[in-house]
Amino acid sequence: MKYYYITSLIFIFTLGVFTDASAQRKVGTKKREDKTTQTDESSTYKSTARTKAENKASGAFFQNLNSDIKVGNIGISNNVFSISLKANSGYKLTDNISAGLAVKYGIQAFNSIGVSGDFRVYDVGAGVYARAKIFQQFYVQFEYDINSIPLIDYNTNTVFLDQRETIPSPYFGGGYMQGWGNWKFGAEVLFILNDDMRDYNNGFVEYWIGATHNF
Questions:
Q1: Distance CA 203, CA 192 (A)
Q2: SS3 category, 90
């Protein structure tokens, strides 16, 4: 009788220990699963927040870009036709200040009546600019370009079509814009601050008309 009693106690004790160990394993597994789930949720939240922040920064960058397309320096005189094209691309540092890059291309066509020696010369330039809006429609601008023009002997008015020279030149002036929304139209006048470029342009200024986006 004592033998069955002792055996029963041992069986109950063993069953209790096994049940308790099994319960502890389940609790530990659940805790690990909860911790893993929380970690995954935290990682997903951080990844989503980071993606939103990156998208917001990227959107803000593109929203601050501005650009211009202009035509200018149009002239017809003494059988000479000239025209220039210009494009700017900049970034708005503030609501009223922008800075960026500028490129331009100009052509002059010479037509000598009764002479078969008609010819064209072209110039190209690229540089940087900074622009500040002083009123809603008016702005001032500083620009610095590196220009490639044909070599000219002004003493004899001889143009060497197969030779070119590079002239750096600063410009300073301003413009007027009028329009609605992001698109505006207007005119710009820049004073040429280099004597060689003044001689090439036969004047003191460059003038442009065109469209501006997002400034």
A1: 8
A2: strand
- Is 60 exceeded by the pLDDT of residue 2? no
pTM of the model: 0.70
3-state SS class at 95: coil
Q: What is the mean pLDDT of residues 21-25?
A: 52
Can you tell me whether residue 55 is helix, strand or coil? Answer: helix
The answer to whether 169 and 198 have CB atoms below 8 angstroms apart is no
Q: Residue 60, class by beta-carbon neighbours within 10 Å (0-12 exposed, 13-18 middle, 19+ buried)?
A: exposed
Sign of the CA dihedral 20, 26, 29, 31? negative
How many secondary structure helices (H) and strands (E) does the chain include?
Answer: 2, 8
Do 74 and 106 contact (CB within 8 A), yes or no?
no
**C-alpha closest to that of 184 among 159, 209, 164:** 209
The least confident of 40-54, 102-116, 117-131, 191-205 is: 40-54
d(CA 40, CA 153): 75
What is the DSSP secondary structure assignment for residue 194, as one 8-state letter? -
Q: What's the mean pLDDT in 165-183? A: 93
Helix (H/G/I), strand (E/B), else coil: 119? strand
In which element (H, E) is residue 97 found? Answer: strand 97-110
